[in-house]
Write a structure and sequence with these properties.
The complex is a heterodimer of chains A (about 260) and B (about 90).
Chain A: E1 3-8, H1 16-29, E2 34-38, H2 46-50, H3 60-64, H4 70-73, E3 75-76, E4 83-86, H5 99-112, E5 115-119, H6 126-132, E6 137-142, H7 146-161, E7 168-174, H8 176-181, H9 187-194, E8 198-203, H10 206-214, H11 218-221, H12 226-238, H13 254-263
Parallel strand pairs in A: 1-5, 1-6, 2-4, 2-5, 6-7, 7-8
Antiparallel strand pairs in A: 3-4
Chain B: H1 3-7, H2 13-32, H3 34-48, E1 52-54, E2 60-66, E3 75-81, E4 84-87
Antiparallel strand pairs in B: 1-4, 2-3
Classes of the chains: A alpha/beta (about 260), B alpha+beta (about 90).
């Protein structure tokens, strides 16, 4: 049975697109057939994060307006045969698509794919409403900052009001060193305040920037990095598998660092 | 400032963030849920009208903040400003 999952946050710049790309790629690595839908019409970015920006012919607005068939607009990922992108239109605005059209579109995608991941735009207006119109569940992305958490709280309320259940929280860009010093809210603090179940913790990791620079999902390029592992774990949990959380507070002893130096990683 | 305050560990910025966030969310949740305040209002009035007459047009029920003896920062509080017209005589 296929599932429509919306990735949303309220606040912009907390990592919705990176999360969509990597969770989607993680599911595809596990053999699931996945389509990533960029619902950020007018400000598309999922294409560049995936490195597929040069392959776009048709987009989501072309599909809902009947200018092409869905299959014509879908772009297959370079490295993973199970992963597809349905790009947003860049020259239109959010009103070009209605919630009803999104439902029709996702119903058609459900026939072909195991997971339909919708990358929601920031905000709570039309683009957000479109993104949640057909969602079975939501992944709410936040960073451990007041502004992001506040917006996440609003989003959680709106999702519940729209009868979208089984929503899960991803705490992104955690800095364990700052948490240790008491200068950043911990995952427990965030979970306590938002009162929602956690599905993943992604540490702040420069590999995310590097993989975005080259247009490769981090789960494919740096699968052994902390952020890469964290995203792969989230994908496993989405599929219903229990995975232990990474220990982000590990003390590196001198010995382990020497061993690491000899091993060359 | 009491002697205990002097010895108390200074709040880290994380503690400050958490306190501020909790406060802001109480306001947000109440503002976004006007039904909740309406229900509280109706229930309070139901009780009060057993004992007194009040001016319905002038009354105001809202969530604000107040200084607290146990916390350094303001804490959320429910304010009910209900002008009394007449108090019923005890029977």
């Amino acid at each position: 049975m296929s599932e429509v999952i919306v990735v949303t946050s309220g606040k912009g710049g907390v990592g919705k697109t990176t999360t969509s790309a990597n969770v989607g790629a993680g599911l595809a690595i596990s053999g699931k057939k996945v389509v990533l839908v960029d619902a950020d019409i007018g400000l598309r970015n999922l294409d560049v994060v995936l490195g597929l920006e040069n392959r776009i012919v048709y987009n989501i607005v072309d599909v809902v307006e009947g200018n092409c068939r869905v299959a014509q607009a879908l772009i297959r990922d370079k490295k993973n045969q199970n992963l597809y992108l349905l790009p947003a239109a860049q020259t239109r605005d959010k009103d070009a698509v209605s919630p009803e059209q999104m439902k029709t579109l996702t119903d058609e995608l459900r026939k072909e794919f195991d997971y339909i991941i919708i990358d929601s735009p920031a905000g709570i207006e039309q683009g957000f409403k479109n993104s949640i119109a057909s969602a079975d569940r939501a992944l709410i992305v936040t960073t451990p900052e007041i502004s992001a958490i506040r917006d996440a709280d609003r989003i959680i309320g709106l999702l519940e009001a729209n009868d979208i259940k089984n929503n899960r929280l991803i705490v992104n860009r955690l800095r364990p060193d700052m948490v240790k010093r008491g200068e950043m809210m911990s995952v427990d603090d965030v979970v306590e305040i938002l009162a929602i179940d956690l599905i993943g913790v992604v540490p702040d990791d420069e590999n995310v920037v590097i993989s975005t620079n080259t247009g490769d999902p981090i789960v494919l390029k740096f699968e052994n990095s902390l952020a890469g592992k964290a995203y792969l774990n989230i994908s496993q949990r989405i599929m219903g598998n229990e995975v232990e959380y990474l220990n982000l507070f590990e003390q590196k002893s001198l010995f382990s660092r020497i061993v690491k130096a000899f091993k060359g990683n | 400032m009491g002697i205990m305050d002097f010895f108390r560990k200074k709040d880290t910025s994380k503690d400050i963030a958490k306190d501020r966030l909790k406060l802001v969310l109480i306001h947000d949740r109440a503002d976004c849920n006007t039904e909740l305040l309406e229900m509280i209002r109706a229930d309070i009035l139901e009780v009060i009208k057993k004992y007194m007459d009040y001016d319905e047009r002038e009354m105001d029920i809202k969530i604000g903040t107040t200084d607290s003896e146990t916390s350094n920062s303001p804490v959320p509080a429910l304010f009910a400003n209900i002008p009394i017209r007449n108090i019923h005589k005890p029977r």
